[in-house]
């Protein structure tokens, strides 16, 4: 289905980024004995996603959990009225999170439909099966303390943003241009060429950001939020790094928090998220080898679940400097209530001095995803103005670990035997563009001469192309294996690590990082990325059964609507944070 999303601002006042958010407790009084709950009702605008309005009615009852969000000014009396009403509808109160003014409730789809005067349907959106309300929710007008409801879209919404490189060939290059096939077709004119890289090591990730030797992240804490938990990550990462004559873990340096009730039958199961967790942890340890790392595994990949797991990381006894999120999905999957919940969590993080980063995705402008049918989109949670969105680049390092060539990560594939485009022409690339829901924040409107009024994605970037990717230690059939991986899942923990190092190095106190990144626009602290005439050549093994074994991967050729450009662009944002200039200048002017 094709639809035009309704633009609705769900941002919170910017002043909330600078102060802690609190709930007005009000007087400890009993709720009215007979509240007027049977009269007029108030509609919760955009609480049903547009794509669900024509969905077929749900057949069997399903169990749901939702977040009821109270207003900023809800008094104790108003809060009690909301709780009593929910109880009267047969919904069970499962808990509350005072910092974001949230009541967690559960019940059946029938109970939620009755309580909120809606209906539930089931459909497929963006390739996902979803259960969602087919019309906007409503509540009694007398419930003045209830603002909105999040979490009633039940779908495996958020996917890992990791992308695997093709299986290594025996002629892969250890650095840019080390090997080059003689079979490159004459018809494809490319100035910078190399066989696909075997996969960079930890030292080369640091080289991407031109880090000085003394910038190791000592004193910094990086939190990572993902789905499920692979208990072997710690031991396998230690084996990887010590085997490369690099520092493994010191006691207590890596802590992992497993989910309490993992829904392993959903979200592709633990195997779908194991590589993501390993990539995130190993990338952080590569860029910031002395930083502490805390991993938080969520029960499932529902937006509500992951947003609240971010809150767990933010409110932990040991406060992280940064939180890295390498997952996402089309922002159209969220309701207005979901966006309010996300923003509250992010504002709480900022108020505590925690910087949160999210991947912009690996599907370019989303026009080829699921049922989008050329409709473009940006990723959530990266599209929120209260998070730093991270895009991606293709980067070739030379034998001395200097940047030989780089471009935005938007890849077109061609047949190597004749140079013909392999349909549809786009294989993968960083997400980006303009949000349909979040207005453009001041730090973008002041620095980016771009048409439109929506929030622009991404803000900055790092290495993402799996053909110039990072070697990750994974488990295959129970044995340790080493594979090249990329995606904005790689770029995000790399950028988050850079900011964590900067915070630890200078002691700067920053919550939301994005305004301070835009202060560095056009300076030597950020390396601008522009298109390059470049590409890699790859040969698959005959055992794959492919008819044509050789493939060309051409960089940043505008295969969809996205391409890098001088200054801010929708692939790499402002560019790539670089070296001591970035570390010393980030947040210096407050």
Radius of gyration: 24 Å
Poorly predicted regions? 1-35
Largest sheet: 8 strands, mixed
- Count of individual helical segments: 11
Structural class: alpha+beta
**Average of the residue pLDDT scores:** 91
Please report which band the strand proportion falls in: under 5%, 5-15%, 15-25%, 25-35%, 35-45% or over 45%. Answer: 25-35%
Helix content: 10-25%
According to DSSP, the number of beta strands is 32
Shape: globular
Report how far apart the termini are: 46 Å
Describe this structure in words.
Helix content is 20%, strand content 28%. The protein is of the alpha+beta class and 590 residues long. The strands form nine sheets. Strands 13, 14, 15, 16, 18, 20, 21 and 26 form an eight-stranded mixed sheet that branches. Strand 14 (254-257), helix 5 (271-287) and strand 15 (292-298) form a beta-alpha-beta unit. The longest helix has 19 residues, at 488-506. The chain is globular and about 80 Å long. The two termini are 46 Å apart.
Keywords:
590 residues; 8-stranded mixed sheet; alpha+beta; 5-stranded mixed sheet; 32 strands; 11 helices
What's a quick, concise take on this entry?
Helices cover 20% and strands 28% of the residues. The model is unreliable at 1-35 (pLDDT under 50).
Write the layout of secondary structure elements.
Layout: E1 41-43, E2 63-70, H1 76-88, E3 92-97, E4 102-108, H2 109-115, E5 120-125, E6 128-133, E7 138-140, E8 146-150, E9 154-155, E10 159-160, E11 163-164, E12 192-195, H3 202-208, E13 221-227, H4 233-243, E14 254-257, H5 271-287, E15 292-298, H6 303-314, E16 322-325, E17 327-330, H7 336-351, E18 355-359, E19 379-380, E20 388-397, E21 403-408, E22 410-415, E23 421-429, E24 433-439, H8 442-445, E25 454-457, E26 460-463, E27 470-476, E28 479-486, H9 488-506, H10 514-518, E29 526-527, E30 534-539, E31 550-555, E32 576-577, H11 579-585
Parallel strand pairs: 12-30, 13-15, 13-16, 14-15, 16-18, 18-20, 20-26
Antiparallel strand pairs: 1-7, 2-4, 2-8, 3-4, 5-6, 6-9, 10-17, 11-28, 17-19, 20-21, 22-23, 22-31, 24-25, 27-28, 29-32, 30-31
């Amino acid at each position: 289905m094709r639809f035009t999303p309704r633009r609705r601002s769900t941002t919170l006042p910017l002043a909330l980024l600078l102060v802690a958010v609190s709930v007005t407790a009000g007087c400890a009084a009993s709720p009215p004995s007979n509240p007027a709950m049977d009269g007029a009702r108030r509609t919760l605008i955009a609480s049903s996603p547009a794509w669900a309005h024509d969905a077929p009615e749900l057949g069997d009852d399903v169990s749901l959990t939702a977040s009821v969000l109270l207003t900023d000014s809800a008094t104790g009396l108003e809060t009690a009225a909301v709780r009593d009403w929910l109880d009267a509808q047969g919904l069970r109160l499962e808990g509350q999170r005072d910092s974001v003014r949230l009541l967690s409730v559960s019940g059946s789809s029938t109970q939620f439909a009755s309580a909120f005067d809606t209906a539930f349907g089931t459909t497929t959106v963006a390739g996902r099966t979803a259960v969602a309300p087919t019309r906007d929710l409503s509540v009694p007008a007398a419930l003045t303390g209830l603002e909105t409801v999040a979490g009633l879209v039940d779908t495996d919404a958020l996917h890992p943003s990791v992308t695997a490189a093709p299986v290594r060939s025996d002629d892969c290059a250890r650095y840019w241009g080390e090997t080059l096939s003689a079979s490159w077709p004459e018809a494809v004119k490319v100035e910078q060429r190399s066989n696909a890289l075997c996969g960079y090591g930890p030292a080369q990730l640091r080289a991407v950001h031109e880090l000085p030797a003394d910038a190791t992240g000592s004193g910094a804490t990086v939190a990572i939020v993902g789905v499920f938990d692979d208990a072997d990550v710690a031991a396998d990462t230690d084996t990887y790094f010590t085997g490369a004559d690099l520092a493994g873990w010191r006691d207590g340096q890596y802590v992992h928090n497993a989910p309490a009730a993992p829904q392993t039958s959903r979200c592709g199961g633990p195997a779908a998220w194991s590589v993501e967790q390993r990539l995130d942890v190993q990338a952080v340890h590569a860029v910031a080898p002395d930083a502490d790392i805390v991993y938080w595994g969520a029960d499932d990949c529902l937006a509500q679940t992951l947003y609240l797991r971010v809150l767990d990381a933010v409110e932990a006894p040991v406060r992280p400097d940064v939180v890295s999120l390498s997952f996402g999905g089309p922002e159209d999957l969220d309701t207005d209530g979901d966006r309010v919940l996300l923003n509250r969590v992010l504002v709480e993080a900022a108020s505590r001095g925690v910087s949160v980063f999210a991947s912009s995705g690996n599907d370019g402008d989303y026009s080829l995803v699921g049922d989008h049918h050329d409709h473009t989109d940006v990723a959530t949670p990266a599209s929120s103005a209260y998070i730093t969105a991270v895009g991606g680049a293709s980067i070739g390092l030379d034998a001395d670990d200097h940047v030989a060539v780089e471009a935005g990560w938007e890849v077109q594939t061609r047949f190597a035997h004749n140079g013909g485009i392999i349909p549809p022409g786009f294989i993968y690339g960083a997400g980006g563009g303009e949000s349909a829901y979040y207005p453009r924040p001041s730090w973008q409107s002041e620095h980016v001469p771009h048409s439109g009024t929506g929030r622009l994605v991404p803000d900055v970037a790092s290495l993402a192309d799996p053909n110039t990717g990072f070697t990750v230690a994974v488990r295959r059939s129970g044995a340790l294996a080493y594979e090249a991986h990329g995606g904005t899942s790689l770029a995000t923990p790399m950028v988050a690590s850079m900011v964590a190092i900067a915070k630890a190095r200078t002691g700067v106190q920053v919550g939301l990082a994005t305004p301070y990144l835009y202060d560095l626009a056009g300076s030597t602290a950020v390396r601008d990325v522009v298109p390059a005439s470049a590409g890699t050549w790859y040969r698959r093994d005959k055992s794959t059964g492919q008819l044509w074994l050789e493939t060309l991967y051409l960089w940043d050729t505008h295969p969809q609507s996205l391409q890098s450009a001088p200054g801010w662009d929708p692939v790499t944002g402002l560019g790539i944070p670089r070296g001591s200039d970035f570390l010393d200048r980030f947040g210096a002017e407050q």
